[in-house]
């Protein structure tokens, strides 16, 4: 009736034109007569709707060949492009609709595509069984070599060899990656054999420093790994990031590959340049069997991966991200330190990341320290309230999480009451705050720390004369000694050590006072702490071996003092280097000479399995 009264089907409102969605509904329900009525009354069948596509795109995606035929007969343009520049043929290929793709192709759909899309649609065509369309796409390309990785993936080795025949180079590279490495990553043993027969370099490296065997390890292609190893490939090779084949195999999630390289003598506690270990790699891959196996072979459940592309953390963090309770349990029973800041970070991450409560409840039940936080950003209760994890918040309170409204982090939490409509949980928190036990000794420590931080030395000295427990931590998890070292207050450090402060007691982020002093290059503080009994050879996931830190920082005075005090010259820092490998890597010639003169082992390997000569 509206059409008969002259309604304009192509008038566009804020919600699109009148016919757009009607046409799509008509083709969905296979009502060609209705489409014809709309077209006969002036509806533009080629016009894109507000979402950027038209009816032909829609039926190509859904594989509705009958309606594709109807639309084309009614004048719909076969190569009409969506807002993103895609044709109906591309939509059909992307959706794996081989019938629709073949019909469009047979009726003249254009297969020439832009350089950055052609390989993608070539793979789409192969994946849905449209090999003829795939090769037509390739034939229209000006850069056919770009298709070689995809051809290897689909085992079209004859075509690959024909493409590289003109180059007459068995070490031919595509985008900086040797052909033999691409073949290894796809597990294409026949092609690897053919390339080796043509004298391809079995140890050739790509831009990232990976050999063909490392490519095979990363993709978990065991047939390729074994074939390359049998032909002399070095199983001990590392790439530029110092990844071993074992680390890469763990990243692939292939437990068989992990067992193979561990059986070749590769350490389950090796790490790459950023601290990635086989165990963390297995957690990232989410493979419970691999995680369990690596732990059974003696892997440490500590470690810290300074992930360059994501949040840094240890095994427990990456285990929690898998949302696999068995992997989390393996890490915990394998010896993860639940009282560390690393465990707190894992809990906070799970509270803020997962929609369900499973993993965070598991971590709370296992016994992560709920009161260990330096501010609200690593305070489990904060994350539980922010992401409305009511079950987890209740369990944390039940398990002894301290909520004290005299502390800034708790004030930050209660401040969210205006933002979130969650009266139940805020009522529980206020009740918990009212019942919290006050510790006058901690309040004294907090007052002393505030004075030290503010640089009020005279006020701090007055407080020091009073009776108080010298090693108590404040709400930021800092002892007075830690705070004094952090602010560089020599006089207060001296006074605290005289009062019996423990120089080995960690503070914020599990750092030791001596670590802070060495990092800040404060030789006077270093001497005070060492003479006060600080351990000069301590190292863990957050505390670099002090001698190594002095080398990296080029702190010659601290280096000389520590070596004179008998610091271990052949120890390996938990985060990687020995003093000698660090000195060699940093080009510290005088430090190298001193270490060698004192008997440092030139053959000692660091956590990346490098000797000093390698790092130099």
Can you tag this structure with a few keywords?
616 residues; 51% helix; Serine Threonine Protein Phosphatase 5, Tetratricopeptide repeat; flat; mainly alpha; 1% strand; two-stranded antiparallel ribbon; two-stranded antiparallel sheet; 3 domains; 37 helices
What does this structure look like?
The chain is mostly helical. The protein folds into three domains: 12-142, Serine Threonine Protein Phosphatase 5, Tetratricopeptide repeat; 154-379, Serine Threonine Protein Phosphatase 5, Tetratricopeptide repeat; 477-615, Ankyrin repeat-containing domain (Serine Threonine Protein Phosphatase 5, Tetratricopeptide repeat, Alpha Horseshoe), CATH 1.25.40. It has 37 helices and four strands. The strands form two sheets. Strands 1-2 form a two-stranded antiparallel sheet. α11 (179-185) runs antiparallel to α12 and α22 packs parallel to α24 (390-398). The longest helix is centred in the last third of the chain and has 14 residues, at 440-453. The chain starts with 11 loop residues before the first strand and ends with a helix. The model has no long low-confidence stretch (mean pLDDT 89).
